[in-house]
Specification:
heterotrimer, A alpha/beta, B alpha/beta, C alpha+beta, A: alpha/beta, Alpha-Beta Plaits, Fumarate Reductase Iron-sulfur Protein, Chain B, domain 2, FAD/NAD(P)-binding domain, 4 domains, 5-stranded parallel sheet, 22 strands, B: alpha/beta, Beta Polymerase, domain 2, 5-stranded mixed sheet, two-stranded parallel ribbon, binds flavin-adenine dinucleotide, binds iron/sulfur cluster
């Protein structure tokens, strides 16, 4: 050891110091089970109440460790975005990264503070996690969703809007739409779980068109949209967007703005390109079959578009001067500009659909004539008569139906604008007329006096939240929990409306049956009372014979799933058979078109076979 | 961010060189394949780029090229210069620079093994990692790992009781 | 049944040299690795390193995974010192994507990196001692490291594969009270240091066995591409944290530890000094973290729809083993087009090891490897 540097030399006995450790407490831990650290990534836990079976965990898993298991006993609710399936984990593949936990849209997944699983049974490594933990012993929760760890973007891109002071006295469109950049950012929030597709009445290919926007390919997006919806301009603006209700991101955050994305897609593709894309799969040959359609609303026009693309000759008869139905004569222009409806309809006309306006079935043309001219007839005349409350005084001329007034506004037909008005109803139609009237009042008198009287309490309103908020910004008053009692008339003049307090709206069976506190009476002075409590159909054009021939169910024409009535050449679609919105009308339009096509072509085939 | 004047000066002495700043203490230089050895010599001799941190290979299969990136560091200048060359994917032959930087031997051998690029004059082109591998150089883009795995290994077919139970009730694993 | 014919060694022609396979199943080898040594007597006249036993194809697999998914893979490249792997991957992605890491996250990352350095050095220190028969040291080193792993578990949810650093920051903030627990543990470590000193550095056996073993000069080290503690043990004060700084290292006060011996002993001395420096850095990080609040991650897009802009970046990190490099290329897609990992041991586990072994004795193979802190998994990737 001669070459050891002197400074390193120590006593030979030094290492013996280690002997003192013999008497210390050992640093090793006892072997009994103990819970791991608070954020430990142990075995998976899944809260089945929260889990909706979206399979996003499966998408993020970098090891293919997650399988979705279909469990028939679980609840399934496409409208709410709930699928009857749950993730199962393969611990032969899992690497315990917990990315599945961090991305889980509902926050149902977490990991336990349990360390150990030892078994010779291979099957024991494949588990269907629930809250009980891998071994049925409830270890505390470890790694769980945390604000920082969350991998999802829970905030949507804001929609630029006209501020209240700029929009309150005119009908120009409020929402300005996303620019392409914003649309791509919004599209990037989508996790492609497909809940929206299931929830949409028309089963639109939303994941696909959103993905295309994310990729910056707006034309592809429009093509995906046209697979199921010939009214993208309309639906991109006013759709009731049930897809967003089902959206998994919406479980904890703001759902992807699917409706605005649809709008962004069509807004960013020129009309001629849209026409080319929409008509790409139009049949080259004609079938020689003719179809007559009554009513140029979304249901009739969708069916017309489908049938024309399939090579049939389609004529649509419309009572009003312009096609579009409630989209044009109901929905106010500040939500849906007329030229947007025109743009969608131009595509439909480009497919070869003929639309005869100012032609009312039952007045200008009869059912018999339609039947004589066509191989099949589709009724899609909607619900265009306002329902009445039938309270005392409701037959006064200054008691008006919301849909009548809205139609007059579109038609440009003058009516005396009341300086003050009350609207009965708490749905979107009530707000449409209230806000329209408010604009007209502001123009005519410089001030607004419109009150919406809703049966429901504020937190149970039927109308969309933005309607309530925006109408207030525009000066519309809202009073909740009031039911109409009578219209107050002095001499010939309408003085206002009396309401009573609404105690409950539904009975024990859940049927609409409001109860009132008759002692709590309120008087609302007004020059006009507007009823916005629902619409009904007018099918007097059917005539006695046909009315008799048809089967009915609760006041509606009975149809099969595809919209065919009990009369073989007659179909029905839209609000007439199934409400309550544009997208449902479109869905029934598709179904009817497919059924008509099958029936017509079946006949052809049958004849050819003879 | 700009290129230090001293570096610019040296780079200007060589033909067909493109240089641009690439972040803090990072400069990217693109050079023709035949110019790389001279560039490395010059950087090493004149500016103290004596440390070859790594050689990276990128398979640009659609361009039919391999990109080789020589990351050299100068302790003096505190700067990392990444020299990029592109060589034809076929036959995939280049020269060794181990005579300039000894560490090159390791990286060239690795790239040969993983991408199939042959370095003329390298000290060793023998296998190091994939000693018993008979297949193509696996880091090439046309080698599909997933496919290889599917062909080589089997998925475990688990049959736990809970699954059998769910299957009896009409459910089961979704594809 | 026929019995195999075993020739009587006495009848064989005499040979001076013979090959010995050191590893891959040898308790003295670091990890699964092998060196084929040609011996003359017990002196090595040629050494050939043989890797691949731990090749998992990380670089290739990463090309198939989303930018975020890869954070689950990177720590696995090097078991003893996983944090620099996470850091380097994240930083290269941040460089390409122009992501700003919030200040608090930067300090957390420094804290994690230095804790990992302490762990790695304790591990190596224990392993190194074992190669010269001092198993008590090994137990002590590993035990001490385990207490640090408790801290990791508390912060990250895992003891070794933390998967904690992510592009843009870290996955979650520090748990309540962890800074105090780290401080207590540092005190405990400092109390142990003199004992390590007694047992190891003041141990005549260590000094005898390690002095002059596996020696290289500064010139050789630089020419061979040696980095990290091994380079500093030859007297070269080079450290990525200082020379090519990242995170908040420019604000951190620490000394670059150097020794001049260039041998196994000097290398262990450097590591000992670095543990002391790391403690100092951790304390600064703790102080900073008590003051600096704010987010711990920048906003990131939905990981399922995240296209990083096209570009490339080379991130370097000073790991416990030297310069770790991650070269990442993005072609503008949702996954890396290429990830190249320059393991910090790439040089000293292969070419340098082969050189240093020549002329040394068979009993020192393990010690040389451990004193170099050669980490096979990061070479194999
Ligand atoms: C005020 C209001 C606002 C609404 N807002 C929205 C909204 O924001 N989002 C949404 O999704 N839905 C909304 N809806 C509902 C939506 O407009 C309807 O569900 C949809 O238009 C129904 O389509 P349809 O084709 O069945 O009928 P309609 O759109 O009602 O079309 C029926 C057409 O038939 C014509 N017609 C009727 N009788 C005859 C006849 N005898 N001869 C010839 N033609 C006839 C009508 O003139 C009309 O053009 C709103 C409805 C109203 C009233
Ligand atoms: S923890 Fe990671 S590897 Fe395991 S199932 Fe979840 S995502 Fe997959």
């Amino acid at each position: 050891m001669s070459d050891i540097a002197p400074k390193y030399k120590g006593s030979m006995l030094r290492p013996l110091k280690a002997l003192s450790f013999l008497f210390r407490e050992p640093a090793t831990l006892p072997m009994r089970p103990r819970p791991a650290a608070k954020v430990y990534r142990g075995f998976h836990l899944n809260d089945w109440e929260k889990c909706v079976g979206c399979a996003t965990c499966q998408q993020i898993c970098d090891n293919d460790a997650i399988r979705m298991v279909h469990i028939p006993a679980l609840p399934s609710d496409p409208a709410k975005g709930i699928r009857p399936r749950r993730p199962a984990i393969d611990y032969g593949r899992c690497c315990w990264c917990a990315l599945c936990v961090d991305i889980c849209p509902t926050g149902s997944l977490s990991m336990s503070r349990e360390y150990i699983h030892v078994s010779r049974d291979v099957d024991s490594y494949f588990i269907l996690p629930d809250e009980e933990g891998m071994h049925g012993v409830r270890y505390p929760q470890g790694w769980a969703k945390d604000e920082n760890a969350d991998l999802l973007d829970l905030k949507r891109q804001e929609m630029p809007e006209e501020p209240p002071q700029e929009r309150a006295d005119n009908f120009s469109e409020i929402c300005e739409g996303y620019d392409p950049q914003t649309a791509m950012l919004e599209a990037s929030r989508c996790i492609q779980c497909g809940m929206c597709h299931d929830a949409c009445p028309a089963h639109m290919h939303a994941p696909e068109y959103i993905r295309a926007i994310f990729e910056g390919d707006f034309e592809k997006s429009v093509a995906e949209i046209y697979r199921t919806n010939p009214f993208p301009q309309v639906c991109g603006r006013v759709c009731t967007h049930r897809c967003e209700t089902a959206c998994s991101i919406g479980k904890r955050g703001e759902p992807v703005a699917i409706r605005w994305l649809k709008r962004a897609a069509v807004d960013n593709v020129p009309q001629d390109r849209t026409i080319a894309i929409a008509l790409k799969d139009k049949a080259k040959t004609k079938t020689g079959k003719r179809v007559a359609i009554a009513g140029a609303g979304p249901a009739g026009l969708t069916a017309a578009f489908d049938l024309a693309k399939l090579g049939h000759e389609v004529t649509v008869y419309e009572e009003k001067p312009r096609p579009g139905g409630m989209m044009r004569y109901g929905i106010p222009e500040y939500r849906l500009p007329y030229e947007r409806i025109d743009a969608d309809i131009a595509v439909i006309e480009a497919a070869g659909v003929k639309i005869r306006c100012n032609t009312k079935l039952g007045r200008d043309v009869t059912m018999a004539q339609l039947k004589g001219q066509a191989d099949a007839v589709l009724l899609s005349t909607g619900l265009n008569k306002g329902r009445s409350t039938r309270i005392p005084g409701s037959d006064h001329p200054q008691v008006r139906a919301a849909v009548d007034l809205l139609a007059r506004i579109t038609l440009g037909e003058a009516f005396d604008i009341p300086a003050s008005a009350v609207v009965i109803g708490g749905g979107n139609v009530a707000f449409d007329i209230a806000r329209s009237l408010a604009r007209l009042q502001r123009r005519a008198f410089g001030k607004v006096e419109v009150t919406v009287l809703a049966l429901e309490e504020r937190d149970k309103m039927l109308a969309d939240e933005e309607e309530v908020i925006e109408s207030a910004q525009e000066g519309v008053k809202l009073i909740n929990g009031r039911g109409p009692k009578q219209v107050v008339i002095e001499g010939d003049a309408l003085k206002g409306l009396e309401t009573v307090k609404c105690l409950s709206i539904f009975d024990e069976q859940g049927r609409f049956h409001p109860r009132y506190d008759e002692t709590d009476v309120m008087f609302h002075p007004a020059q006009m009372v507007i009823e916005a409590i629902g619409q009904m159909s007018d099918v007097s054009f059917l005539g006695e014979d046909l009315t008799e021939q048809l089967e009915w169910s609760r006041g509606r024409i009975r149809i099969d799933e595809a919209g065919r009535t009990s009369v073989p050449w007659l179909w029905a679609a839209g609000d007439l058979v199934k409400g309550p919105d544009v997208i449902s009308a479109i869905a029934t339009g598709h179904a009817a078109a497919a059924s008509i096509h099958a029936a017509l072509m079946g006949e052809t085939e049958a004849r050819e076979a003879k | 961010m700009s290129i230090p004047a001293r570096l610019n000066e040296v780079l200007n002495e060589l033909p067909a060189i493109q240089a641009r700043p690439a972040g803090a203490r990072r400069v990217r230089v693109d050079v023709a394949p035949q110019g790389l050895p001279a560039l490395l010599e010059l950087l090493k001799g004149r500016l103290g780029f004596i440390h070859l941190s790594a050689i990276s290979c990128v398979d640009w299969i659609e361009d039919g090229q391999f990109e080789l990136v020589y990351h050299v560091w100068s302790h003096e200048m505190k700067l990392l210069v990444s020299c990029h060359v592109r060589i034809a994917r076929e036959p995939g032959v280049y020269v060794s620079v181990h005579d300039i930087h000894e560490p090159a031997g390791f990286f060239e051998r690795d790239i040969h093994e993983m991408f199939g690029v042959h370095f003329d004059g390298a000290p060793s082109m023998e296998k190091f990692i994939l000693t018993s591998w008979e297949g193509p150089p696996p880091m090439r883009k046309d080698f599909n790992t997933r496919k290889h795995v599917e062909e080589t290994f089997e998925w475990v077919d688990y049959r736990p009781d809970w699954l059998k139970d769910i299957e009896r009730k009409g459910g089961g694993i979704e594809s | 049944m026929t019995t195999p014919q075993v020739p009587d060694p006495a009848t064989l022609a005499p040979s001076e040299e013979y090959d010995l396979y050191f590893g891959p199943n040898h308790p003295g080898i670091e990890g699964n690795y092998s060196v084929r040594v040609r011996l003359k007597g017990d002196v090595i006249c040629q050494a050939v390193a043989d890797g691949g036993y731990l090749h998992r194809g990380f670089e290739k697999i990463m090309e198939d995974r989303l930018w975020v998914q890869n954070i689950a893979l990177v720590p696995r490249i090097c078991v003893p010192d996983p944090v620099p792997m996470e850091e380097s991957y994240a930083r290269a992605v941040e460089m390409i994507g122009g992501l700003e890491v919030p200040l608090r996250a930067q300090w957390i990352r420094v804290l994690m990196l230095e804790l990992s350095r302490i762990c790695a050095h304790l591990f190596t220190f224990g392993g190194n001692a074992a190669t010269i028969g001092l198993y008590t040291n090994m137990f002590w080193g590993v035990t001490m490291r385990d207490l640090f792993l408790d801290i990791f578990e508390e912060i990250t949810g895992a003891r070794i594969y933390h998967i904690y650093i992510t592009p843009g920051g870290v996955r979650r903030d520090l748990p309540e009270g962890v800074l105090e627990r780290i401080e207590a543990l540092l005190v405990e470590l400092e109390e142990r240091m003199p004992q390590f000193e007694d047992l190891f550095f003041n141990n005549a056996v260590v000094i005898d066995r390690a002095t002059g073993t596996g020696r290289m000069s500064a010139e050789e080290a630089l020419a061979w591409g040696v980095t990290g503690p091994n380079l500093r043990a030859t007297g070269v004060a080079s450290d990525v944290r200082r020379d090519d700084p990242y995170l908040v290292y420019p604000q951190v006060d620490f000394d670059i530890v150097t020794e001049t011996g260039g041998d196994a002993l000097a290398r262990m001395m450097v590591r000992k000094g670095e543990v002391v420096q790391a403690v100092k850095i951790v304390r600064q990080a703790i102080a900073a973290l008590r003051k600096v609040g704010g987010p711990v991650r920048c906003e990131l897009p939905n990981p399922l729809a995240w296209d990083l802009p096209a570009g490339d970046a080379y991130a370097r990190t000073e790991s416990s083993k030297g310069e770790l490099g991650f070269y990442i290329v993005s072609n503008g897609g949702p996954r890396p087009y290429r990830v190249h990992v320059r393991g910090a041991s790439s040089m000293h586990a292969v070419q340098v090891l082969e050189k240093l072994l020549v002329g040394s004795r068979i009993e020192d193979v393990a010690q040389i490897m451990f004193s170099l802190d050669a980490c096979p998994p990061e070479v194999d990737r």
